[in-house]
Design brief:
The complex is a heterotrimer of chains A (228), B (226) and C (225).
Chain A: E1 2-11, E2 14-24, E3 29-33, H1 40-47, E4 55-60, E5 63-64, H2 69-75, E6 76-79, H3 91-101, H4 107-117, H5 133-145, E7 151-155, H6 163-178, E8 182-186, H7 190-196, E9 199-204, E10 207-212, H8 219-227
Parallel strand pairs in A: 3-8, 3-9, 6-7, 7-8
Antiparallel strand pairs in A: 1-2, 1-4, 4-5, 9-10
Helix pairs in contact in A: 3-4, 5-6
Chain B: H1 2-29, H2 42-70, H3 73-105, H4 113-134, H5 138-168, H6 185-225
Chain C: H1 2-21, H2 23-40, H3 48-78, H4 82-87, H5 93-123, H6 131-157, H7 165-173, H8 175-189, H9 194-223
Classes of the chains: A alpha/beta (228), B mainly alpha (226), C mainly alpha (225).
Chain lengths: 228, 226, 225
Amino acid sequence: MIRTEHIGKSFGPLHALHEVNFAIPQGEWAALLGANGAGKTTLIRMLAALTRPSAGSIEVAGFDLERHAHKVRQRIGVVSHHPLLYGDLSAEENLRFYGRMFQVENLQNRIDELLSLMELKKRRHDLVRTFSRGMQQRLSLARAVLHQPGVLLLDEPFTGLDLHATDLLTRFIEKAIAGSVTVFMSVHDLDYALAHAQRLLVLCKGRLLMDTTPGGIGRDQLVELIRE
Amino acid sequence: MKSIKTAHLVMILLTFIAVEMALYLTFLYAPTEKIMGDVQRIFYFHVSAAWASFLAFFFVFIASIAFLRTGKAHWDRLAASAAEIGILFISIVLLTGPLWAKPVWGVYWTWDARLTTSLVLWLIYIAYLMVRSYTTDAERGAKFAAVFGIIGFIDVPVVYMSIRWWRTLHPAPVIAGGEGSGLAPEMLHTLLFNLFAFSSLLITLLILSYRISTLEQRVQALKHHS
Amino acid sequence: MNSLRQIYTILYKDVLLELRSKDILTAMLIFSLTVVVIFNFVFEPGSAEMATSAPGILWVAFAFASNLGLSRSFAREQENSNMQGLLICPVDRSAVFTAKVIGNVLFIFLVELVTLPVMVLFFDLSIGAVWLPLLATLLLGTLGFATVGTLFSVISANTRSREVMLPIMLFPVTVPVILAAIKSTAWLLAGRDLGQVWPWLRLLIAFDVLYFVVCFLLYEYVVEE
C-alpha cells in the first residue's frame, strides 16, 4: 500500500507539489493523470525514494520512507520511461546485475522464469542496445519485478510501445494485482486508465485535484480536468 | 524582512563611519614605513581584504552546511551572496598584492604561499559561482554549489600548507614589515581598525546582496504565479 | 557485508562494460601519450632540462587524462539514466561512491602503468631503484584525483556545459595533490633519499584520507534530487 500525508516539494517560491494526500490500499491499481508538468514524475520519483519531499511524510509497503528508505526500496519495483538498463550488457547480464544488487535468492531460476514470461528467452545473450523499444521495456519490467516487490511504480510505461508489448504489460499487471501487488502508474492514455485502473488520481499544477474511481467520473469531465 | 532592513541601515551607517576613520588612520595617522615608503600603506587594505574574503568564504561554508541539512532556500541565497562578495575581496587582494610587490620586490608576482593560495581560492570560488549558474535545475544547482562550497573551504588550509612546503624549498622573499614582526604600535592600531572596517563592509554588502537575491526570488515567484 | 557485495557487483559491472567498449581506457591512454609526445618538442633532444621537467610533464599528462576518463565514466551512467537505476537499488550511496572511486582508480592507474615506461624511454629516465615508491606516488596521487573527481563528475555531468565544468572544479581543488605528486616524483627521479620524499607522500596520504571522508559523506547530496 501507499500513503502520503501532506507531502509537498518546493524550492524557494516554486512549488512542484503541494499538500498531496492519498492512500492506495494493497492490491489496488491506481492511475495518475495530469497534463505535462503537473508533477506526476516528481510524485512517482518521491514514492520511489529518488526525490525527497520538502514537507509531509510517505509510507510505502508498510514502511516510512524517510526512516526506512532501504526497506522501501527492497519492496518496490520501478519502471520509468527510461528502461534503466545498460546497453552494453546482455539481457541476462542486466538482470543478474540488478538481481545481485537486490540480493535476490535463487537468481538464475528467477531470471529464466522472467525471461520466458517476457518472451525474451531467445535474445537473452544479446546486448540490450540491439533491442527494440518494446523489448527493452519488457526487459525493464522483468528488472523491476526480479525481487518480487509488493508495490509497482510505473512512470509512463507505455511510451513508445507497440500493441503487443502494451498487451503483455497489461496482462502482467493484471496478474500482479491478482497477487495483491499494489500498482501505481502515471499514464497519458485516458481510455486506458478508465478501462483498467480501479482508482483515478488527477494532478494539476502540483495539487491533487481529484481522487475517484472510473465509475465516479465521466470521460468528458476528466478531459476537462486534465486540460486545466 | 523588516528587521533585516533595520539591521542593514545600521550597518550602512556603521560602515560609513568606520571606512572614513580607516582612511584617516591609513593615510594620516600611521607613520610612513622607513624602507618601503608610502607604498607600504597598501598593506592595511591588502591584509584586511584577505581577512574579509576568508570570513566570507567561511560564511559560504557554514551556510552550505546549513542548506544541506535543512534544504531551506534562504541558506543557499546567503551562501551565494557570501561567495560573490568573497570573490570581490579576494580580487582586491590579488590586485593590491602586485601593486605592493612591484616597487618593493621588483616583480609584480611572486609564487609566495599566501599570494598563490589567494589565486587558487579565486579560481575555486569562480568555479563555485559557475556550478550554480550552469545548472538548469535551481535546487540541484544549490545542492551542487553547497557541496562544492564545503569542499572548497576545507581545501583552503591544505592548499596553503602544500604551497608553503613547496616554497620553503626555494629562497623565500623576505616580507619587510610583515604582520607582527616589529610593527609600530600606530601601524598595529591602523591594521586592527582596518580589519574591523573591512569586516563591517563585508557584512553590509552581504546583507545588501542577500536582500537583492530575496527580491529577485519574489519577482520570480510573481512571474511564476501569474 | 551487504555493502561489500554490492560494491563488488557495481565494480564488476563497470569493468565488464569497460572491457566491452574500452572507450575510457583508449581515450585516456592515447591522450596521455599525446601529451608526452607534444612536450618532447619543447626541449632540445638530450638536454638536461628534459629530465628535470619530466615529473611535471608526467603529471600534466595524468591529470588531464584522468579528467577525461572521469567525465566519460560518469557519462556512461547517465546515458540511459542508469544512475537512477542504481539509486532505486537498496544500496547505500556511499557504497556506490566507493565502487566508483575504486573503478576510476583502476582505470587511471592502468593507463599510468602504460604511460610511465614510454616516458622513461622518451626522456631517458632511470627508475630501476625507485620503482616501488614511484608506484606508490602514482597510486596515491591517482586516488586523490579519483576521489574528488568521482564526486565532481556527477556535478559537471548535470550542468549545461557538461565536460567543461569538471576541470574547472577539479584542478584548483586538487592543487595540493598535483603539487605533492610532482615533488615526490621529482625527488625520487633525482635520486634523493626516501627521508626527503616521505613528507610529500605523507601529504598525499593525508589529502586522500581527508577527501575520501568528505566526498564519501557528500556524495548522496549530489546524486539524489
